[in-house]
Design brief:
Elements: H1 17-21, H2 32-42, H3 46-49, H4 51-59, H5 63-87, H6 94-101, H7 104-133, H8 141-158, H9 160-191, H10 204-207, H11 215-220, H12 223-230, H13 235-238, H14 246-255, H15 257-275, H16 287-295, H17 300-332, H18 350-369, H19 373-405, H20 421-439, H21 444-467
Helix pairs in contact: 2-9, 2-14, 5-12, 5-14, 5-15, 5-19, 5-20, 6-7, 6-19, 7-8, 7-17, 7-18, 7-19, 7-21, 8-9, 8-17, 8-18, 9-15, 9-17, 16-17, 17-18, 19-20, 19-21, 20-21
């Protein structure tokens, strides 16, 4: 832990096991270019390219406002994370902070829950990528899923630099696609070309049933879809232990969050909904595909399919990266099997990445054998488990700020503006989203899964604590 000059009479903060081992063995090989694109790409996924169709059907043009408000909350979360990262940049990231500022059980739950989140996400994304391949090739989905998993597994084992480079190009494809869509729509609105030129108008944002065609409730019911689209934006925090210059690179990446959301979400949706009335979108079709078809650009379907394929592979790639680091962080703190601490010669988590990749393959097989509602219910758990990490970030930042203001810990060089009030607001917003999920019968199942997972973790923690009575990883704060 970063040492601090403690005033007389004040208690020096307890050292954690990760203080000595954090970052040990990892290579700081991720440069500014890669970190920036990982940060940008983390906010652009299949939740935008595909999930926005269902959200448009529920909220109409007011979805733009939902993304804007949720985007502000995401910025508060990322600035809270940034403050913690500049205090102590570690690869375990929010699991480490939960362990330090809330307690060992919080760190245990956060690490294992975030690991599960990425395993489940990896299963769904590699399965989705295999489905996208059938657009061009008549090959069994399990073959594509197997090939993609093996390739991404190999990339993550070779070196972190190769992971960063692959993620850079994945993100570049997504960014280029959205910017291209925005420019095309802007051209249609101003110059009137394409089949949509005669009807394109910004008045579609309020003329077809109003800005809130289904009322405020319709907009609120889309919040869980909106927040799901932002999951993985916190991934930049996991890269802290392997960034070449985290004190410089990470703040710059986090400060780009507002314009990323403004351009890629708010901007893209404003343009699409201006060119095509929201009433013409289908909840089962990507709004990007529908917009291209309305414009008379038949090649658009193939382009969007390539982009969502890239988004799915990017998410799976990020999943393999983060799961290995989370398992190693847990193992280093005595809250996971010791064999997860093993690294390759290039400094990548060998066992953790291998186990996670194997589980992703098992999940793909299960999805192939039983593609029914049971698998869908498991996938819905990803939203809750992802938001748990955000909750831990916010609570950890609030407690850290309290200690830093008292002089117990050093002040961060990247203080979150408006904190702790912005962090409290973000927590309240997440709480509202969870309530909305409870009201929505399609999303409610994820809330049923959470207590079961909590029970499994609680029992596991007690067993590990009983077997390791002298382990500091299970001592109170």
């Amino acid at each position: 832990m970063t040492s601090a000059k403690v005033e007389e009479g004040q208690e020096e903060p307890r050292a954690t096991a990760a203080d000595e081992t954090s970052g040990e063995g990892y290579q700081r090989a991720l440069g500014a270019r890669q970190i920036q694109m990982i940060a940008i790409g983390g906010a652009i996924g299949t939740g935008l390219f595909l999930g926005a169709g269902k959200a448009i059907a529920k909220a109409g043009p007011s979805l733009v406002l939902a993304y804007a408000i949720a985007g502000l909350v995401i910025f508060f979360i990322m600035r809270a994370l940034g403050e913690l990262l500049m205090y102590r940049p570690v690869s375990g990231s929010f699991s480490e902070y939960a362990r330090e500022f809330i307690g060992p059980f919080a760190g245990f739950v956060t690490g294992w829950t975030y690991w599960l989140f990425w395993v489940v996400t990896g299963i769904t994304e590699v399965t989705a990528a295999a489905q996208y391949m059938t657009f061009w090739f008549d090959i069994p989905q399990w073959v594509s899923a197997l090939i993609f998993t093996i390739i991404l597994y190999g990339v993550n084992l070779i070196s972190v630099k190769l992971f960063g480079e692959l993620e850079f190009w994945f993100s570049m494809v997504k960014v280029t696609a959205i910017v291209g869509m925005i420019l095309i729509c802007a051209g249609i609105l101003t110059l009137g070309f394409s089949d949509a030129g005669d009807t394109a108008s910004v008045t579609h944002l309020w003329a077809d049933g109003g800005f809130f065609p289904h009322g405020i409730k319709g907009t609120l019911m889309t919040l869980q879809i909106v927040m799901f689209a932002f999951l993985a934006v916190e991934l930049v925090g996991v890269t802290a232990g392997e960034s070449k210059d985290p004190k410089t690179v990470l703040p710059k990446a986090i400060n780009t969050v507002p314009w990323r959301i403004a351009v890629f979400y708010v901007g893209a949706l404003v343009m699409i909904l201006s060119v095509v009335p929201w009433t013409e979108f289908s909840p089962d079709v990507s709004p990007f595909v529908a917009a291209f078809q309305k414009m008379g650009l038949g090649v658009g379907a193939g382009i969007v399919n390539f982009v969502v394929l890239t988004a799915a592979l990017s998410s799976c790639n990020s999943g393999m990266y983060s799961t290995g680091r989370m398992l190693r962080d847990l193992a280093l703190n005595g809250q996971g099997p010791k064999f997860f601490t093993r690294l390759t010669r290039s400094g990548t988590p060998l066992v953790g990445t291998t186990v996670s990749a194997a589980l992703m393959l098992v999940g793909v097989w299960i999805n192939y054998q039983w593609p029914g509602d049971a698998f869908t219910y498991v996938v819905s758990f990803a939203t809750i488990s992802g938001m748990w990490a955000w909750i831990m970030i916010l609570i950890s930042q609030i407690r850290y700020r309290r200690l830093a203001d008292r002089g117990v810990l050093p002040q961060s060089s990247f203080r979150a503006p408006g904190a702790p009030y912005t962090s409290v607001f973000a927590l309240a917003f997440i709480g509202m989203v969870i309530v909305m999920m409870g009201i929505d019968k399609d999303a409610r199942i994820s809330l049923y899964c959470a207590p079961l997972w909590a029970l499994i973790l609680g029992v596991s923690y007690l067993v590990l604590k009983a077997r390791n009575p002298g382990n500091k990883a299970f001592a109170g704060r």
